[in-house]
Amino acid sequence: MASPGPAGPPAQGSEQPGGSAPTRRGTELAMLAFAAGLMTGALMLVEVNQEQQLTMRLVWYGLAYLVLFAVAHAAVRRWAPYADPLILPCVALLNGIGLVMIYRIDLALTERFGSDDWSAAAPKQVLWTTIATGLFIAVLKFLPDHRTLSRYAYMFGLAGLVLLALPGMLPAQLSEVNGAKIWLRLGAFSIQPGEFAKILLMVFFAAFLVSKRDLFTVAGRRVLGIDLPRARDMGPILFAWGICVAIMVFEKDLGTALLFFGVVLALLYVATERFIWVGVGLTLFAVGCVLAYQLFGHVERRVESWLDPFGLYETGGYQLAQALFAFATGGMFGTGLGAGRPDMLLYQANSDFITAVIGEELGFIGLTALLLVYMILALRGLRSAVAVRDSFGKLLGGGLSFTLIMQIFLVVGGVTTLIPLTGITAPFLSAGGSSLLANYVLVALLLRISDAARRPQTGVKPKPVAQAPIAEAHTVMVERPS
Amino acid sequence: MQLTRAGFLALLWLFVLAALRVVRSDLYAAAGLRVSVPGFRRSSAKKSRGGKAPRQLVVTHGALAGTRISLDGRPIMIGRADDSTLVLDDDFASTRHARISLRGTDWYVEDLGSTNGTYLDRAKVTAPLRVPLGAPIRIGKTVIELRS
């Protein structure tokens, strides 16, 4: 539902290039500058609290960040001028805070282990951010219309399945890191193909549901007042469930399995508006949980350390217990940036447990702010999905936004022991190239969809300024002579 | 030290609030959009072809007379099933009676194998038929038509 003249506040009117709809690019730039300021401030605080000199390193990180997002902003201005003005700044802020925290954890680990044992993760993360921004710009440039994706849906689906299955099939020395077989090691680099498979499969599933959604709304037998779906329509959801179980068995990756199943369920629900699919999905999920707990040792260990992290402190619960200590130390206002003890978390302080480090140093208030930024990000994505005109875009946008929220729920829920720890990275915050790359592609797609949603229809004469109150505008429309 | 700590948190929240302000300003635009735009867009898209696109479906006779459903491009399911878009409580209507769906820029009505049939104007609907503006579609005791 693009508007020939969405009644934005007059203040934004000055930013319009074509004079028809506000693009809000100026707002985006201002918010980006704000994010950059916050990031630089955070970096300075860390340096001051760590009693470091204001070294060249700081300037380098800050500059890299500024230039990167200026370039990304220019790309949005060029190729997606009507895109949502909040998505990119939110991403920039999260990524910036992530970089600062990773750098800060580097400092702590170097202090504890000495620089020889510990290779710094921050420069690597800056490098990955650069590559990710490049990919982001490439997606914006080479994908002028998201609907093109639906044409290659089955190919994407196949590619996604292959990527998902690849690490499970490969020998362990190529694909196993810390017990999870989700990696693909190529020389110096290692990537997690599952992160990309996630997006590819979502494109496939959205396109599949758009073309076949009528099938899923056909009611089958009625049991206890509930219309059950027909048995043969259960195929796709059972298939998705099977894949998730396979991921758990062959790749020992709880997080991806959960995420994947959650997204399939969400898309199915959005496409059919029938709650019964959620019911069916949750039943399958419960069955899967029980099976996994009974059959797989790694799932059982996760659950046990979730139930009693302090009891299992010496074995499996160490990190969870430390994360809880970190939250407790942080309290309401946090210890201040650079004043916590993230080295106590040991491994994965900068990936899976980065939210615990943030919770310690920024406290409940700071972490809540960051979670709100995630919420705004997903909200804008969902709003674009509501506003976009084609159902493929709606489903894809909804799915992508849901993925973001689901990921952050799994991470924060895991770290705060609301749910068992699943080992998934916080999008944009955590160190990790694949997650960053995939999430930037995700955001580029969201921007593309929001651009399509807000772009005025071409060939439509610009409506005479609709600055009047909404109620009045409505009246005008109804009385138009037909 | 304490000051910078609180200051940073305050700035963080300021970012959130600024973002919410943008959301709010956009919310009004969205509301205006919701009310005025689909019809405007459709009608002007169609104007080039010398017609007007239907914007709503109105029930003119029957128990539901007066009901209006705005057309947003999604198919309208009509029947006695609970999940129909227009749920009929009519002995002459089937569970899944008819569907009105958008193809290209035109709306088509098709009968989904109902017992008592669907009538467009006076013709029985056997294959998908294009629905002109204002043409009555009769299903059991209910008559609906598309209006702009």
From TrEMBL, chain A:
Compositional bias (Low complexity): 1-20
Write the Enzyme Commission number(s) for this entry: 2.4.99.28
The alphabetical list of record keywords is: Cell shape, Membrane, Transmembrane, Transmembrane helix
Q: Which PROSITE patterns match?
A: FTSW_RODA_SPOVE (PS00428)
Q: In which pathway does it act?
A: Cell wall biogenesis; peptidoglycan biosynthesis
Q: Where is this region: Disordered?
A: 1-23
The reactions it catalyses are: [GlcNAc-(1->4)-Mur2Ac(oyl-L-Ala-gamma-D-Glu-L-Lys-D-Ala-D-Ala)](n)-di-trans,octa-cis-undecaprenyl diphosphate + beta-D-GlcNAc-(1->4)-Mur2Ac(oyl-L-Ala-gamma-D-Glu-L-Lys-D-Ala-D-Ala)-di-trans,octa-cis-undecaprenyl diphosphate = [GlcNAc-(1->4)-Mur2Ac(oyl-L-Ala-gamma-D-Glu-L-Lys-D-Ala-D-Ala)](n+1)-di-trans,octa-cis-undecaprenyl diphosphate + di-trans,octa-cis-undecaprenyl diphosphate + H(+)
Predominant localisation class:
membrane
**Membrane topology qualifier:** Multi-pass membrane protein
Q: What Pfam families does the annotation carry?
A: FTSW_RODA_SPOVE
For this protein, the parts annotated as crossing the membrane are: 29-46, 58-76, 85-105, 152-170, 182-210, 254-271, 276-296, 353-379, 400-422, 428-447
* Record's subcellular location: Membrane
Q: Does the keyword Protein biosynthesis apply?
A: no
Superkingdom assignment: Bacteria
What name goes with this protein? peptidoglycan glycosyltransferase
Species annotation? Actinophytocola gossypii
